[in-house]
Design brief:
Elements (H helix, E strand, L loop, with lengths): L1 H13 L1 H22 L15 H12 L7 E7 L9 H15 L4 E5 L1 H4 L8 E8 L8 H13 L6 E5 L16 H14 L2 H24 L8 H31 L4 H28 L7 H32 L10 H10 L10 H11 L1 H16 L7 E2 L11 H12 L8 E6 L6 H13 L4 E4 L3 E2 L5 E8 L6 H12 L1 H8 L2 E5 L1 H35 L3 H26 L15 E2 L2 H31 L2 H29 L6 H33 L8 H6 L10 H9 L16
Parallel strand pairs: 5-11
Antiparallel strand pairs: 1-3, 1-4, 2-3, 6-9, 6-10, 7-9, 8-9
Helix pairs in contact: 1-2, 1-10, 1-11, 2-8, 2-11, 4-6, 7-8, 7-22, 8-9, 8-11, 9-10, 9-11, 9-22, 10-11, 10-21, 13-22, 13-23, 14-20, 14-23, 19-20, 19-21, 20-21, 20-23, 21-22, 21-23, 22-23
Keywords: Cell membrane, Membrane, Transmembrane, Transmembrane helix
Main location: membrane
Family: Belongs to the resistance-nodulation-cell division (RND) (TC 2.A.6) family. MmpL subfamily.
């Protein structure tokens, strides 16, 4: 593998103009496809589970109740205490507003408060419904903005009018200018790490090149596939983060080889064969983990995983082909100046003897960690277990308008409805009754409505609406609890449990649907998939690391460290977003459930990133152990050579993820926060602290593998030991091997 990557890098270095031209062509094609076949206007926020009871009922409603088969918005009218919405003047204002709403784009019908029956007991508030024939995911932001504009511009006297409801639950997770903060931090970290603006610019340039292609490719598919804005932003976020990190690893190794006197072309080849092998391995693990989301069987999660996997695949391809071409253009300009801080550091790194003393902060930290390795292990495990503790009460759901941006119309509407009617009116359930086999369909529907009203936690049940052919009835049921409460989930389960008895008594079958029920079904499906997916991911990490390091201790230690990182990340997210601890520090002023697909996405992404840091750090340790045979010396050498780069990579990735925490979209905010915390914990608490302590504690046993297994496993040569002979052969060939690009100068 190392030799193959080195040969690819040599070709890209020599034929750099051709390679850059091919990548520019690829970018042009991707952008052209985006312009012709897709675009940002076609992204949506589809969160459904095909085959679930709620989705099947929605599909049937398209035939029986087309006007009610889509999502709906709420128009909330309020007056101060002592005034009534039922006066003639108030009703004229309400009629004026509803007439304007009926003319808004894509509106199927508008139901007045007299039709919905939603007038508060004090007569100070009323709710009208605006029904659409399409799902909330299919409504664009401009459509909802047009509704708000129409409502607010209509004469409404002294009525306070707010627009909200389920149609606004699927706010797009659109990147903003504030997300560039992560890029700026990355530039600063790269400049400090390399001490050269040219060297710092190469990882950023290659990463941005890959992100442009990835985002354009995702957007080009929006015309044929339902792609959520969350999937697009996740691809952008992960593609940018790993793109910078992967290039950082390779450029760092390239400059290290230049500092030791190696020719630029061979330095690029060696960097691609060593650090590039780690990049290829780590990138493929992320791709496999993200693509593995398809096994859960939920289309929107499959699309999300494949989009992110595609972005990572492009980042790996750019790092292994386009980056060596950029290195060819840079030539020897990347060589550290004699006597510079970078040159002295590289000279010190060359001395891998453990007795050489600490040469950088990473090794000094490692020396502290392994001074009392058992104590370090216990402290880190206890600390991460403490952070993970809140995760035991994690509640999964899809964020609703209760956590919408403060001051927004939908947040104000949610609060008004809760105050005047009760929280359940923000997420009513729809019960679809199939009365085609009932002898008296109307009477059967009335009997079902009466039975539902007797259930606990039911605030109200509307009169059944019969379909045009009389074979179906639609009943709206309002819970007493909020849409995201456990009591509402229990109510949905209770209604479904009553289905058999109701069918026996009326001859009609029922199904629970609506936005709230769909969200509950999505969360239930994803919640049941967490443990199986975790088993697959951990098992995959054990197999992959066994192949790479040919050790039993290293894979087990890495898998357990990954579980600690994931658990701690879950705990922090629950503490912030669900329990509200220190939530205002990140702009969260209302608590709610953890996004239902966050745990699986976090496990998939963090798995790849954890393997990334593990391979880059531990491979340098194993490389030193193979050459010198000292377990403790290998830990020191690995920290000295790779610790600084892992630290820089983690800080860059953390800053990229953290910059998205400023988003108003709660899904993106939670996801970005979880990834940022996960990277920080995994890189510094696990890889830079726990890993050295465990390796120091186990000594030579850390690198032991039974002989029969050693013979059976393929040799991946992740450290690039086969490159020595390859480099010697290349050095013997004077034709182009040591040729530097024209105009290159020695620093």
């Amino acid at each position: 593998m190392a030799s193959l990557l080195a040969r690819i890098a040599r070709f890209a270095f020599r034929r750099r103009r051709l390679v850059v031209a091919l990548w520019l062509l690829a970018a042009t094609v991707a952008i052209a496809c985006m312009a012709v076949f897709g675009g940002a206007s076609k992204i949506n926020q589809t969160f459904t589970v095909p085959g679930s009871q709620s989705q099947q009922a929605l599909d049937r409603m398209k035939q029986a109740f087309p006007a009610s088969s889509g999502t709906n918005a709420q128009i909330v009218f309020t007056l101060p205490a002592g005034q009534s919405v039922t006066t003639a003047a108030a009703e004229r204002s309400i009629t004026s507003v509803l007439a304007a709403a009926a003319k808004a784009p894509e509106v199927a019908q508008v139901l007045s408060p007299s039709q919905t029956g939603a007038v508060s007991p004090q007569r100070t508030a009323a709710i009208a419904e605006v029904e659409y024939q399409v799902s909330g995911a299919s409504l664009s932001t401009s459509t909802l903005d047009a509704l708000k504009s129409a409502v607010q511009s209509a004469p409404h006297g002294n009525l306070q009018v707010q627009v909200g409801g389920p149609a606004f639950n699927n706010g797009a997770a659109n990147p903003g200018a504030e997300d560039l903060v992560g890029v700026l931090v990355a530039v600063i970290v790269l400049a400090i790490t390399f001490g050269s603006l040219v060297a710092a610019g190469l990882p950023l340039l290659s990463a941005l090149f890959g992100v442009v292609i990835a985002v354009a490719a995702v957007l080009s598919l929006t015309g044929a596939v339902d792609i959520s804005s969350t999937a697009l932003t996740l691809s952008l976020m992960i593609g940018l983060a790993v793109g910078i990190d992967y290039a950082l690893f390779i450029v760092t190794r390239h400059r290290s080889q230049l500092a030791r006197g190696m020719a630029a072309q061979e330095a690029a080849a060696t960097a691609a064969g060593t650090a590039g092998s780690a990049v290829l391995f780590a990138g493929l693990t992320v791709v496999i983990a993200m693509a593995g989301l398809s096994v859960v069987g939920i289309p929107f999660l499959t699309v999300m995983g494949l989009c992110a996997a595609g972005a990572v695949f492009i980042a790996v391809a750019v790092a292994l082909t386009l980056l060596p071409a950029f290195l060819g253009f840079a030539g020897t300009r990347l060589t550290p100046k004699p006597g510079s801080r970078t040159a002295r550091r590289e000279a010190a790194i060359t001395d891998t003897a453990a007795a050489s003393g600490p040469v950088n902060g990473a090794e000094r930290w490692t020396r502290i960690a392994i001074r009392r390795p058992l104590a370090t292990v216990l402290i880190v495990v206890a600390a991460l277990a403490g952070l993970a503790w809140p995760a035991h009460s994690m509640s999964l759901g899809l964020p609703d308008n209760a956590t919408a941006p403060s001051g927004s119309s939908q947040r104000a509407a949610y609060q008004e409805v809760t105050a005047d009617f009760g929280p359940g009116f923000n997420g009513p359930l729809l019960v679809l009754a199939d009365t085609s086999h009932s002898s008296a369909p109307a009477a059967a529907a009335q009997q079902i409505a009466g039975s539902l009203k007797a259930l606990p936690d039911v605030a109200a049940v509307t009169a059944p609406r019969l379909s045009a052919d009389g074979k179906a009835a639609l009943i709206q049921l309002v819970p007493k609890s909020a849409p995201s409460d456990q009591a509402t989930k229990d109510l949905v389960t209770g209604i479904r449990d009553q289905a058999g008895a109701l069918e026996h008594g009326t001859g009609a079958t029922i199904a629970v649907t609506g936005t709230t029920a769909v969200g509950i079904d999505v969360s239930s499906k994803l919640g049941s998939a967490i443990v199986p997916f975790a088993i697959v991911v951990v098992g995959l990490s054990l197999v992959l690391l066994l192949l790479v390091f040919r050790s039993l201790v290293v894979p087990v230690k890495a898998a357990l460290g990954f579980l600690l990182s994931v658990g701690a990340s879950f705990g922090v997210v629950v503490a912030l977003f669900q329990q509200g601890h220190l939530a205002k520090l990140i702009g969260v002023d209302a608590t709610g459930p953890v996004t239902s697909f966050l745990p699986i996405i976090l496990m998939a992404v963090l798995f790849g990133l954890a393997m990334d840091y593990e391979v880059f750090l531990v491979s340098r340790m194993r490389e030193d152990y193979v050459h010198h045979g000292s377990p403790i010396g290998a830990v020191h050498a690995g920290a000295r050579t790779a610790g600084r780069v892992v630290t820089a990579a983690a800080l860059i990735m953390f800053s990229v993820f953290a910059s998205f925490v400023t988003s108003d979209n709660m899904i993106l905010k939670q996801l970005a926060c979880a990834l940022a915390v996960g990277v920080l914990i995994d890189a510094f608490a696990v890889r830079m602290t726990l890993v050295p302590a465990v390796l120091a504690l186990t000594g030579r046993a850390a690198w032991w593998l039974p002989r029969w297994m050693d013979r059976a496993l393929p040799n991946l040569d992740i450290e690039g030991t086969s490159l020595e002979q390859d480099c010697a052969m290349q050095s013997a060939d004077p034709h182009g091997t040591h040729q530097e690009p024209a105009g290159a100068s020695t620093r």
